[in-house]
Amino acid sequence: MAESTGLRERKKAATKAALSEATFRLAIAKQGVENVTAEEIAAEAGVSTRTFHNYFPSKEAALLYDFEQTTGQLLAHLRERSRKQPIWHAFRDAMIDMRFDEKFDIDAMRCREQLIHASPSLIKEQSGQFMALFTEAIDIVAASTGTSKDDLYPRLLLGAALVTMKSSTEHWIADPGDRTLAQTITEAFAVFERGITQPPPAPETSPDARPHN
Amino acid sequence: MAESTGLRERKKAATKAALSEATFRLAIAKQGVENVTAEEIAAEAGVSTRTFHNYFPSKEAALLYDFEQTTGQLLAHLRERSRKQPIWHAFRDAMIDMRFDEKFDIDAMRCREQLIHASPSLIKEQSGQFMALFTEAIDIVAASTGTSKDDLYPRLLLGAALVTMKSSTEHWIADPGDRTLAQTITEAFAVFERGITQPPPAPETSPDARPHN
DNA sequence: ATGAAATTTTGCAGATCACGCAAGTTTTAC
DNA sequence: GTAAAACTTGCGTGATCTGCAAAATTTCAT
């Protein structure tokens, strides 16, 4: 559906991607987004400053463009799975479906994490995107649990799921150890199934004895 | 200790509070922070625009000033309790210690919530403050659970606690029903103790209805 | 009380951001 | 091939936020 849509669509997508990548490149080179201007990004991508702002409202949004994309895909997976699976494990499996570890370079992910972690404006932007994800997902969760979206339980469940996804990914990126990302995610989701007051049984460094899934 | 610190300290605190309140007032009057300028806020509080920016980096920060204050107090309570209590219930009880329902007008809280919910910039600002709280609290949690701050478990626990505090407060503000805030908080924390896949025993609206998760 | 020291307030200038508008350019579709 | 639709660009504008230095205010020692 998005393939045959002609030159214009493809060019737009390419420009947007180029701007996002240019932002990433410059941010790394200059050790932080705050040291990069919209003007520089536009120049790096070969368009005018005005055009940059046609595509992104801010350089923060440009840098987190693929996060936003990812979010959309995750939601699609979630919608699909939520019709055949209890919502909690639908989140876990939708997350595993994303296969970040195969799609992205782990060093690039680490760089990105560091950029975000070091910049208040990026932290805010990312948090804002998480909140948007919350808003988009709450209906799915409410429907799936047979509750209202204003109830407490679906909000807690969704919040827990988002926290789990963010934390486990960050943790795995920082130090994969001998685990796959899917294992780490599964482990993290299991913590909430067990009850949060129950600390995880296996110390995080022991290598064997983890039957996957 | 902060009492006898002379006229200067007191005036600064008063100015800061005045600026924050002015921001709140104007934001309500104009139906959103985006319709208020720093210049207007400064005028309303009787100082120069430059002075406003000496106190707050942005109008969003000004509007969420008391949230920041609250955060600090919560951390103090948490630190105290975490030495005598397991960390999970320390969070719950530290939160209850705050007694928002007694300290703040519920209508004002509702207004504030609506302002935040309707403004992307405020959502980002608040999320940023939550992340700051995360950063400040993670050491306490790690110490209290005997783990490293880079481990997964303390991050999940802290994330769950923050989600619980935010969600239960918002939920209670939106519709207190016949519950106290402390009850709602306790109920919410209990969800995570039980295991997130276990829906709460008492449905929030209909008395029968087995939840079919 | 008084004058010097420390601190705060303020105006000004400058860099950036983000958006509306209208003219110019490219792509599409007939 | 040409007209319509969509995209790019430059310009102008209003707002944000910061540094700097002068003026005003508070503090403190005497």
TrEMBL record, chains A, B:
HTH tetR-type domain sequence ranges: 13-74
Short name of one Pfam family: TetR_N
Entry GO MF terms: DNA-binding transcription factor activity; transcription cis-regulatory region binding
Keyword terms, alphabetized: DNA-binding, Transcription, Transcription regulation
Residues annotated to bind DNA: 37-56
Keyword field contains Hydrolase: no
InterPro entries with a match to the protein in the record: DNA-bd_HTH_TetR-type_CS (IPR023772), Homeodomain-like_sf (IPR009057), HTH-type_TetR-like_transc_reg (IPR050109), HTH_TetR (IPR001647), MftR_C (IPR041347)
Name of the protein in its database record: TetR family transcriptional regulator
Native organism: Glycomyces albidus
Taxonomic lineage from the root: Bacteria, Bacillati, Actinomycetota, Actinomycetes, Glycomycetales
